[in-house]
Design a protein that fits this description.
4-stranded antiparallel beta sheet; 44% strand; mainly beta; 415 residues; 7% helix; single chain; Integrin_alpha_N
Length: 415
């Protein structure tokens, strides 16, 4: 028995050393991890980052919901000189089980934006956080529940959109959920957009578990359609809903569904980018089992013709979660940043794929960003936070050392 125990111990030690060697080899191949700057790590379960210049100083600020912490916050971008330190913040609401927070001009004044918080679990509600008239990082915000959202579904995602009321200015609130009764739809306001009791829910499509929503003109007819990724249920995959235009758009009829691809796959976050630089906007969709990016190359302006290419996740990373496209190294070609969940050490949770091209052939070379730190990452934003001329990586993480890394950014070292 002692001999068997020693043998098992030896196997365990050898496996550990092998894992370390593989991780070291990957680091040598991929390069060193980028420096991580924490914006806020003082709550639990940071879940998504959305951008808007709230104080009109020319710098993009952030809103984030903290799921386990049950709060929604906004963060003031302090500018390049202080951007590597913790950012000034305001807690604008108590939002139990918040899954997403988004900026939106519900007041239709074109001068400031409210924040909406989508809550799942037992909360099953959307909260609206009204901004003060001036100085959003100094004066108090007002929180109200959106009555038409209460107990309708577990809310997962929201985006501002122009559905069919453009003459009134402002933006409409499009939202979607997961689980029993999940739908994609929008909230029709009345003449007084501050009177939330009068908002009416308009269903556009059934849903399973919505991961992404984009308000974008998919067919070139001048109005905004809705592009989505749905990871569960009969409608899982990547598809878009065609805006029929007013007045049909506001009559409560479901919009026509158009498939892009990925039917039957567990699709995660998506991004829009002209990856092959042919003048047409493509769609990038992360999928699980296997973990890969589905690159749907747009073949014409109709939104009906797509060519699929597959970009596998590199070895020794976690499960696929998010993707963003941008030129990270300044060579004129778009690269990819990939985020992961289930990235237990020594796996990497965030990497970038250096894009190269020879004719119509594309090659993607994995490069390190996060290293083994972090487990469950979220969606990604690419922007130049330190004003050094290259794109940095903004995201959040909610499982590192049980608390999570919070809201943070990785400093691009390539310039």
């Amino acid at each position: 028995m002692l001999s068997i125990t020693k043998s098992l111990l030896l196997i365990s030690i050898m496996t550990t050393f092998l894992t370390i060697e593989i991780a070291a080899g990957e680091e040598a191949e991929r390069g060193a991890a980028w420096e991580c700057h924490i914006i806020d790590q003082s709550s639990r379960g940071a879940d998504g980052v959305k951008l808007f210049d709230a104080d009109r100083d020319g710098l993009l600020d952030i809103t984030t919901g903290w799921e386990e912490g049950g709060i929604t916050r906004i963060y003031r971008n302090p500018g390049p000189a202080q951007v590597k330190s913790a950012w000034p913040l305001v807690t604008i609401g108590n939002t139990p089980q918040v899954e997403d927070a988004a900026w939106i001009d519900l007041e239709r004044l074109n001068v400031r934006k409210a924040v909406v918080s989508c809550c799942e679990g037992k909360t099953r509600a959307i909260y609206v956080h009204w901004p003060p008239v001036v100085k959003p990082f100094e004066n108090p915000w007002k929180q109200e529940v959106l009555p038409a959202s209460k107990d309708r579904m577990m809310w997962m995602f929201a985006v501002p959109a122009k559905i069919g009321l453009d003459s009134r200015g402002g933006e409409e609130l499009v939202a979607a959920g997961k689980g029993p009764g999940a739908e994609i739809g929008w909230f029709l306001p009345t003449a007084d957009p501050r009177d939330l009791s009068k908002y009416k829910w308009i269903t556009l499509s059934q849903a399973g578990w919505i991961m992404s929503l984009f308000a974008v003109d998919m067919d070139g007819d001048g109005d905004q359609d809705l592009l989505t990724t749905d990871r569960k249920g009969k409608l899982r995959g990547c598809r878009w809903l065609e805006n029929p235009g007013p007045p049909i758009a506001i009559m409560g009829k479901q919009w026509k569904n158009h498939w892009v691809g990925g039917q039957g796959r567990e699709v995660m976050f998506a991004d829009l980018a002209d990856l092959d630089q042919d003048g047409l906007q493509d769609i990038l969709v992360v999928t699980r089992a296997p973990d890969e990016v589905l690159w749907f190359r747009r073949l014409d302006a109709s939104g009906q013709k797509w060519e699929k290419q597959v970009i596998p996740y590199p070895d020794h990373t976690g499960g696929g979660k998010g993707v963003a496209a941008g030129d990270l190294n300044g060579d004129g070609l778009l690269d990819l940043v990939l985020s992961c969940e289930h990235a237990e050490p020594p796996k990497s949770g965030v990497v970038w794929m250096r894009g190269t091209r020879k004719g119509d052939q594309f090659h993607w070379e994995p490069q390190e960003i996060s290293g083994p730190r972090g487990i469950k990452y979220d969606r990604i934003e690419l922007l130049d936070l330190d004003a050094d001329g290259d794109l940095d990586v903004l995201s959040c993480e909610e499982r590192d050392q049980k608390k999570g890394l919070g809201v943070f950014w990785y400093e691009n070292p390539l310039k």
